[in-house]
Design brief:
single chain; about 280 residues; alpha/beta; TIM Barrel; six-stranded parallel beta sheet; three-stranded parallel beta sheet; 9 strands; binds fe (ii) ion
Length: about 280
């Protein structure tokens, strides 16, 4: 597996606080089959955050030093960022520092949790225009996407790829987010799964294991291939800076998606209510 969204750079955000924790997190990732990690500390889409990126680079260099003489030296590590879109996003579109491994091929964009800002589609367009493929981080956790799932279709039509979080798929973030994740997976509009690991316990790399089980339950014979594509071959393309095909969605699939989305969300709500009353 290749994990393209997690927070293991020591002491720079709400992820690993120190190098020991970073190494323990890498060890945990290795134990469940992760072979490469693209680590993505939080950063804002603003030119002033160039300095924050330099800070991330220094902390990442210290981690690489420590990793070299450790028992996880064989895990490939690259530095990137989880770029929170802002009204200033247009001002960083020509700065490769915000893209995966500074290669100018892919960028991980995080929406505000409650909304899809009106400038977002223009932001996606501008990145695509420059040959940078946008990856939308965990759209299934965005309130506006959950209430208006058409947004997810729009992102894909605008040339973005969608990344779901392991703990969304395996139900750890609640039934609504789980239902949204399953609907997106069934519609075939998801390109990546990633851990978004922040620590060794509640938000850890171990979420991968339970996600594999959730896919087995929901996708039967197709689960293995789906898991392999979203956890290994597609993220390997980002790791290697190789282009991925655009995700195509036909209009009848779009209708089925919107319908299954609301049906699943409704069923989960119902289940939760029944559970609550018993
Ligand atoms: Fe994250």
């Amino acid at each position: 597996m290749v994990d393209l969204h997690c927070h293991i750079v020591p002491g720079v955000d709400d992820g690993a606080p120190d190098i020991e924790t970073s190494l323990s997190m890498i060890r945990q990732a290795k134990s469940i089959g992760v072979t490469a990690i693209l680590t993505t500390p939080h950063i804002l889409a603003h030119p002033a955050e160039r300095a924050t990126h330099e800070e991330h680079k220094r902390a990442f260099a210290r981690l690489l030093d420590a990793q070299r003489s450790s028992d996880v030296a064989d895990i490939e590590l690259r530095l990137s960022g989880e770029v929170r879109v802002t009204g200033d996003s247009m001002r960083i579109i020509d700065d490769r520092a915000f893209t995966y491994a500074e290669e100018g091929k892919y960028i991980l964009l995080e929406l505000p949790s409650q909304e899809v800002p009106p400038y977002f589609s223009q932001t996606l367009f501008e990145f695509r225009l420059r040959g940078i493929t946008p990856i939308v981080a965990h759209p299934e956790r965005n309130l506006a996407v959950i209430t208006h799932p058409q947004h997810a279709i729009d992102f894909v039509r605008q040339g973005a790829h969608l990344q779901l979080t392991t703990s969304s798929i395996n139900g750890e973030l609640g039934p609504t987010i789980e239902a949204a994740s399953m609907a997106m997976l069934q519609a075939g509009i998801v390109s990546f799964i990633a851990s978004d690991a922040h620590n060794l316990t509640m938000r850890s790399f171990l979420g991968w294991e339970r996600t594999r089980e959730a896919l087995d339950l929901n996708f039967g014979a197709d689960a293995k291939h789906l898991f392999s594509r979203l956890s290994a071959s597609n993220p390997a393309a980002v790791l290697n800076g190789v282009p991925l095909d655009l995700v195509e969605i036909e209009s009848d699939r779009e209708d089925a998606f919107l319908e299954s989305f609301s049906t699943q969300a409704g069923l989960k709500q119902e289940k939760r209510k029944r559970f609550f009353f018993f």
